[in-house]
Structure formats: C-alpha cells, structure tokens
C-alpha cells in the first residue's frame, strides 16, 4: 500500500513541489556501484537551444494562503482536513468574479488533490466522479485521471468500467505500469483467467522490475492454477510450485511471501508423503536469496538464521556455501556480536577459499581480524591482517613487487582482475592501518606494564 500511495501522489508532488529523498539499502557498498557496468554513462546532449530560465518557476503553484492551508494538510496526510479545505476552495473559485485564466488552473489542481484525498479515505465513488470529470477538463494530467478513475471503478466493484478507463492510459505514460496491474485485477474479478494470465505474462516481460513484483508473481501462479488443463497438469504444477517458492524466497517481509508459503503447504497436503516433503523443503539457493533480502533490510537475526538454514539445505554448492557463511558471519557482526562473529568469519574464509571467491575471502579475513581485535585477541587479529596483506597484497612485478596498499589507487587497481580490484586495494590498505593500530595498542600495554613494574620495585 505504501508503494501505491507514493505512486498515486506522484503527480501531486509536481503540484506541491515536495522534495524527493532516496534511501540506501542495508549494507550498502559504494564500490559496487563504481565497478558496476557503465549503465549510467553520460548521455549525448539533446540537440537544440537550452530553455531559458523563467523566474515564474520559483513561484509556488498555489499562491493563495487559503489554498496553501489545504495543501499543507494534504502533505501532513490529514486527508479529512485536506478534503474540507479543497472543497471550500473549489466553491470559492466558482464564486470568484476573476477571470478563468487566473483561477481555472488552480481550481482544477485543487480538484485533483481533492480526489486523491478522497481515495486515501476509501471514498471511491466520490473520488471516481471527480477523476472522470477531470479527464476532459484537465488534460495535462489525463493519464493520471484515467488511472485513478480505473482504480476507483475497480474498488467499488465495477470491474468492466475499470477495464474501460484503464484502456485510456496511453503506453509510455508514467502510470502505465500501475494501470496494467489494475487491468489484471479487473480481469481476475471478472473470472477471465486466461486473459489475466496473458496480461501477467506481458507485464512481467515488460516490467521485470516493476512495482509490486512479488504480488504479480503470486497472481501469475494463481492464474496458472485456474487455467491448468488435465493434459499438462504435471508440467504446470511444477511451474506453479516454482513460482510460489520464488515468492517465498524473494519477499520474506511482504504478506505475499507468507501467502506463498501457505499455498505451498496446501499443495503439499494433496501429494504423497515423498512428493510433499520435496515441496515443503527449501533449497540452499532459496535460503540464500531470502537471507539477502533480510540482510539488506538489516533484519540481522533473521538473516543469520536464513543463512544458517542454507548451509544444511539441499543444493548447497561451493559458491552458495561461501556466500552463506560470509553473510551469516556478517549478520552476527552487524548485531555488534564481534566475539561470536570471529569464528564464523574463519569458517567463511575457508569456504570462500574453496570456492575461489577472492573478494569475500579477503573481506572474511579482514572482518575476522577486526572481530578478534574487538574480543581482545591482538595476536589473532595481527595474524589475520598479515594474511590479508600476504594473500592479496602483491602488485604487478613491474611495480617493483610493492604491495597494493603501498601503491597509488590509480596504479594499484589495474594490477588485479576487474571484478574487485578497488575493493581489495582499499581492504588491504585498511588491513595495514588496523594492524598498525593493534600493534600500537600492544606496545602501549607493554609500556604501561614496564612502568608499573618499575614503580612497584
């Protein structure tokens, strides 16, 4: 619902000029962005002259203080207050003797925001009437009006009307993806499961990372169940189970993940014991996928449990074991349980060595060293810092055999394979720095001991 609410008020943000913030994921590594494919390469400039700056752009859309009060209530999500305020302003605009050029646009914009305020109170009939009238009178936002009108029709039980309004949203417009989901729900409400399945297939191909992805996958599996024929029942059943398992793995924090697990249990209850056990079991890959979602959302205790389950699940290979063990240790680390994380990083380092994953092996050694240092085992920390430098510290022989941490970054990075050169270079530099800190602490302790001994004697 939060995603939909944010989207629905997208056009409202254009009117309100609200600032947009972007949040980062849980354990974000900016180096991953630097080493990602150059998808954000500089685009060629558009031909033609630049648009001259217009100081009118700095003027708030709603200049009147009375309208601004309703806008502020809308921003504060005081939907009832915003509804009352915008209704009052619409009446004032109608009574005004000023020209339509002055008040017409503000009146239409206020009507649009009034419609959004009504939808947020589930007043679908009143809101729908407003959006349908705005479709012709306020054409600049026509795609949004058609989408909202279709949504209101669906919510008040008119699935056929929802399809009619959804068809008015043009391809390429901003609300097209959400409108397709309204159309899918309308087809499902009408029992047109074959059409719904086709629409779901098209949606997933056109919007592979579109909104409400887990929900769409779940509904695809549901449509497959409704349309499965006796001839290919076994093949279809395998696809259905696979989709439900994927939803369970990829959406652990959404209700759709729970619903997928329930549906899998229901399917398993109809099967012989041996087949039911296979359906109920989860593979190592599924546990790792689920764990990564929890990990990125900083649900660290839950992610640790998921990665631990992956290590005992069927389908575990060297790569999955490496990633599972490293992120299990990292989950404990993120819970500030350094002492408990230390041996887990040792296990991860050994697993990643077998898998040939240089990046995670170096990170496991480095964070393991930090964990041992936090636990007071300075010698263990120094030994692991030294292994980071020894195993990952040799540069190109043309650089005189210097370690990467001794080289400038622009020289060090090309000396290693492109998959993780910069991360390893920075990790080695950090390892050397932290090792020096540990040595300094050890020397300080020795000096204190000598001073105390001298004072006592």
Description:
The protein is an all-alpha fold and 457 residues long. Among the domains are: 212-226 and 233-281, no CATH class; 282-457, Tetratricopeptide repeat domain (Serine Threonine Protein Phosphatase 5, Tetratricopeptide repeat, Alpha Horseshoe), CATH 1.25.40. 70% of the residues lie in helices and 0% in strands. Helix 9 (159-166) runs antiparallel to helix 10 (176-189) and helix 16 packs parallel to helix 18. The longest helix is centred in the C-terminal third of the chain and has 36 residues, at 421-456. The protein starts with a helix and ends with a helix. Residues 1-40 and 395-424 have low confidence and may be disordered.
Largest sheet: none
The helicity comes to: 55-70%
Assigned CATH architecture of the domain at 282-457:
Alpha Horseshoe
Indicate the CATH topology of the domain at 282-457: Serine Threonine Protein Phosphatase 5, Tetratricopeptide repeat
Mean pLDDT: 80
Measured by DSSP, the beta-strand proportion falls in under 5%
Q: CATH class of the domain at 282-457, anyone?
A: Mainly Alpha
- Span between termini: 74 Å
Rg, rounded, reads 30 Å
Fourth-tier CATH superfamily name of the domain at 282-457: Tetratricopeptide repeat domain
């Amino acid at each position: 619902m939060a995603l939909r609410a944010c989207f629905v008020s997208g056009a409202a943000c254009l009117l309100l000029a609200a600032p947009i913030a972007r949040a980062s994921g849980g354990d974000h590594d900016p180096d991953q962005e630097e080493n990602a494919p150059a998808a954000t390469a500089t685009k060629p400039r558009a031909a033609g002259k630049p648009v001259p700056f217009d100081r009118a752009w700095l003027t708030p859309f709603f200049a009147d203080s009375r309208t601004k009060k309703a806008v502020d209530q809308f921003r504060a999500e005081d939907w009832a207050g915003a509804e009352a305020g915008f209704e009052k302003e619409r009446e004032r605009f109608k009574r005004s003797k000023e020209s339509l050029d002055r008040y017409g646009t503000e009146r239409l914009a206020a009507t649009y925001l009034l419609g959004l305020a009504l939808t947020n109170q589930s007043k679908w009939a009143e809101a729908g009437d407003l959006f349908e009238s705005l479709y012709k009178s306020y054409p600049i936002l026509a795609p949004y009006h058609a989408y909202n009108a279709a949504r209101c029709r669906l919510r008040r039980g008119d699935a056929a009307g929802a399809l009619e309004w959804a068809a008015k949203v043009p391809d390429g417009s901003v609300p097209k993806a959400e409108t397709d989901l309204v159309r899918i729900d309308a087809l499902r409400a009408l029992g047109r499961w074959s059409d719904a399945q086709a629409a779901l297939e098209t949606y997933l191909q056109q919007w592979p990372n579109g909104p409400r992805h887990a929900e769409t996958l779940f509904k695809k599996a549901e449509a497959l169940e409704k349309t499965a024929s006796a001839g290919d029942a076994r093949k279809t059943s395998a696809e259905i189970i696979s989709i439900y398992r994927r939803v369970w793995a990829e959406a652990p924090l959404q209700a759709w993940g729970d619903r997928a697990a329930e549906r899998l249990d229901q399917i398993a209850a109809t099967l012989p014991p041996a087949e039911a056990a296979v359906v109920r079991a989860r593979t190592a890959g599924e546990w790792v996928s689920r764990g990564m979602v929890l990990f990125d959302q900083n649900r660290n205790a839950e992610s640790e449990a998921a990665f631990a389950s992956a290590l005992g699940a069927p389908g575990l290979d060297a790569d999955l074991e490496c990633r599972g063990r490293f992120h299990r240790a990292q989950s404990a680390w993120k819970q500030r349980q350094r002492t408990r994380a230390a041996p887990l990083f040792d296990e991860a380092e050994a697993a990643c060595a077998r898998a040939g994953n240089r990046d995670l092996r170096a990170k496991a050694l480095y964070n393991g060293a930090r964990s041992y240092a936090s636990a007071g085992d300075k010698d263990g920390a120094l030994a692991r810092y030294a292994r980071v430098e020894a195993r990952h510290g040799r540069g190109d022989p043309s650089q005189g055999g210097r370690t990467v941490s001794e080289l400038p970054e622009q020289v060090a990075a090309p000396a290693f394979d492109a998959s993780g050169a910069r991360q390893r270079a920075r990790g080695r530099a950090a390892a050397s720095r932290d090792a020096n800190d540990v040595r300094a602490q050890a020397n300080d302790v020795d000096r204190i001991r000598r001073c105390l001994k001298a004072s006592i004697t």
